[in-house]
Design goal:
mainly alpha, two-stranded antiparallel sheet, 6 helices, 49% helix, 5% strand
């Protein structure tokens, strides 16, 4: 058992160091300018047409409706205000349910989802990506307030149907 624990810790440590070497900077989020909707109007101000690749309307900090924020956190990350980017209790809970019950429960916090969707390849589903997501979420939590992270999440995540961000 001690050999197995040492092996697991060594692999996790090695992957973490490798992930740190090839990590995008979370500082880039401050300069991020996602595609917005381009609106065309006639000379009288009447709306003619909208063009977009990702339908998105940005909200400012404090504009996320409280009822939506509460619902989002209840579903996605009930411990959002109690962790620093990674919810260790949530990870352990999800891991035990996945092993014991054969469920596919995720352990990503709202901050981890934001980091993974903004900075990492969305098609990758492996442990290396998950570790990079966790490390980046800790950096996001150091750099941004919880309110800023919540607003960024509500502006940058895909809410399906071509709608990127809550307001869209």
């Amino acid at each position: 058992a001690p050999v197995l624990i040492t092996l697991v810790l060594g692999v996790v440590g090695g992957v973490s160091v490798a992930a740190l070497i090839d990590m995008p900077s979370v500082e880039a989020l401050a300069d991020l300018s996602p595609g917005l909707i381009t609106q065309l109007y006639d000379r009288d101000g009447g709306h003619l047409q909208s063009y977009f690749r990702e339908r998105r309307v940005m909200l400012q900090e404090g504009e996320v409706p409280e009822v939506f924020a509460q619902a989002l956190l209840a579903i996605e990350d009930s411990n959002f205000y109690d962790h620093g980017g990674v919810d260790l209790r949530g990870v352990l809970r999800a891991a035990s349910r996945n092993v014991l019950e054969g469920r596919g429960e995720g352990a990503s916090t709202l901050t981890m989802q934001l980091a993974g969707n903004v900075f990492l390849d969305r098609t990758q589903r492996n442990w290396s990506r998950k570790i990079r997501e966790a490390l980046m979420s800790v950096e996001l939590e150091k750099r941004y307030s919880k309110q800023q992270i919540l607003t960024l999440y509500c502006n940058l995540m895909n809410f399906s149907g071509g709608n990127w961000g809550l307001e869209a």
